[in-house]
Amino acid sequence: LLFTLRMAGVGQDRVYVTSRVWLKVSNLRWVSGVVEAVSDKAVTIATDDGQRVNVPRGSDKISQRTPKELEAVDNLTTLPDLDEPNMLHSLCVRYTQNKIYTRTGPILVAMNPWTDVNLYSQEILHSYRRKKIDAIPPHVFGISEAAFANLQENRRDQTILVSGDSGSGKTESTKFMMQYLAAVAHHSHTTHTEKQVLQCNPVLEAFGNAKTLRNDNSSRFGKYIEIHFDDSFALIGAKIDTYLLERSRVVSQEAGERNFHIFYQLTSQAQINPELTALLNLKEAEHFRYIQKGAQVSVGYRPATSFQNTLAALEGIGIAADECNDIFKVLGLVLHLGNLDFQAGAEENAFLDVSDPRAVLCSGLMGVLPARFAESLICRQIQAGPQGLGDSYTVYQTKQQAIDSKDALARALYGNMFDSLVKRINQALLEQRQAKIRTISILDIFGFEHFKTNHFEQFCINYANEKLQGHFNEFNFSLEIQEYQREQIKWSYEDFIFQTNIKCIELIEGKRTGMLALLDEQCIMPNGNDETFCTKLKNELSDHPYLGAAKMKGSLFTVKHYAAEVAYDAIGFCFKNKDPVQPAIVDLITNGDSKYLRSLFEDHKLKMEGKPGLRRQNSEMAKSTIIFESVTAQFKRQLADLMTRISAAQPHFVRCLNPNSQKSAGKLEPEMILDQLRCSGLMEAVRVSRAGFPVRIPHEDFLSRFALLTARPAGDSRTALSAMCADLRVPPEHYRVGTTKVFMRREIHERLEEDRSRLLVRQALSIQKMVRGHRARVLTKRLRVLRAKAAIVLERHARRSLV
Fold first, then answer.
1. What's the pTM?
2. Chain centroid, CA 738 distance in Å
3. For residue 32, is pLDDT > 90?
4. Annotated active-site positions, please?
5. Which of 44, 134, 282, 642 could form an SS bridge with 270, CB 3.0 to 4.6 Å?
């Protein structure tokens, strides 16, 4: 009875006594076990942690486990059971073997080792040159080589999409890929350009990265890096586009986190660099409110603390000392703005002492008079009608409103400076640009996020990931079709039934009643606020299947994303979407003495005057003192442009995973990894491959494996395979024979595996019976010999006693 195989249908899987399985015990946890018994109603599983669990037959909580010899394969698509628990286990097994890279078809999965690994030497780099991606171990160098080889062979632009959670290693992966492309595209006359391209990374890290709870060097913005090549495939330049810089970090950070690296690098020069100290009145970080929270927070990433490293990178790009000083003045101005103190005067109006040394210092760095500076922060001008035509009057702000204006100014200063710095980097990198160029682009963008509390930033990030996931699904579907065409197998769209995220994207960006449109509407309305935005969502989108309107409570609403259902808190949505800068402040800066600051706010000035801005050439914005182009409107436009460029190029995918929350080498947190797998879209790719005929086995492997069930027919492999399937009574509609592989429905393959296992068990029983019989006969023979010898001994002793 122990070896009797009793089947139990579990979804599409079949399990039987002695099957090695995975058991789902919670949303993010699977445990391994062995099936002990199968009844008509339940399956009994003995888990490896000593538990015995009864699970109803047909439950989706059971999954077949991959054979041990296949657990550490380079390509997860070769797993016979490619699902959540088996993917997770294989990744964990490989990680413990110091194999941090794994392929899932065309997708590279990279797990952060949290320590230096010897995988990026020049010898290893050059070992990937001119090698097919399937012939070499998985590596970011392999993805880079595939992109470069395709660029050369097909003359088509390439793009590498890198995504993942904070701390998953996106930034490092991007740097290694840039390093590889610079090395393989090396020409003697392009050495200077290569160095400039690589020097971008330290600059962008200093100004755009910060320490978070998950990562000591977290990119707080998305970037799209175009690397340019000429007709001989020499590297001739680059261009960088950035997305959604986390401006809110400039004025506040969570406990245990830091502001952008550059602030701490700059304040480390207090008293060390007399010139900078005098220019900016520098002090230690503890003296500045905007950065004092992170002053005592340790950071393990050494370049994050190196001011000299950043200076050298700025110089390497070609930014002169005078330009650097202008940038440092903006940084100093932001720091000192944080230290301003407002008082509540008569009728709760804000008051700022113009003789306060801090106000004098800020106005000096801004290049304006102290009195004008103070007035721009504590007063607000109300304009009725177009500027210059209607009436206007001035009102005093409350203390809190003045603080908000100051913070908005600090965010705008830093954000505009960052944009200007990126533009300046692009000018340096595009000096050698030619009429005809070819590009390999790398998109390093934040992964899907869902925390206990999710805000406007998470909403924008997840919107971007939703768009990228749509492209990802389309690409994987196209790969499936190409596989069928290569194997000369007929197919139809009915063979591929999988869910898309088009409706979720429409929910967010619909023209009239999309969430972004409703948010912009409330930002424009005089009485629009977060509460009215939530009301609009309930009224306009209550029946939408991807918006949890029924679950909306107060300011909370839920969106069903491709990766998870996420609850957002709408508090702050309207304010962050506007991120307003007072017109009086813009007017003051653009008429001040600082040429650099005037250039930073030139676009704001043009919008205020109703002229086409640099970022919105076709604007028909009427003249108004409201400087408003919403953050989401700008991001939506940028995202549309990004998707156009990505769609025009040949894509490659890198999904980065963070193995643990402790930032420790060798430590694994399976539940955390599984959550990232779901959010990365890898499971969606698996679902696409599972549609149609998901089991693909090379001809010879199929013939040798199932020759146990029937004699191998004569003829070539393709003819023999068709004949074998007929002998095995496989219905023709459930399999297709390609040129090199057989494509099969999953349930049919499982039935064959089950029949094979039954036969092996019967044969094992026969072998056991013969071995046991043989051992029993040998033992009986030995006993007979021993008894005979014992009888002789007894007889001998008896005779002696009688004598």
1. 0.80
2. 35
3. yes
4. 166-167, 171, 215, 218-219, 447, 449
5. 282
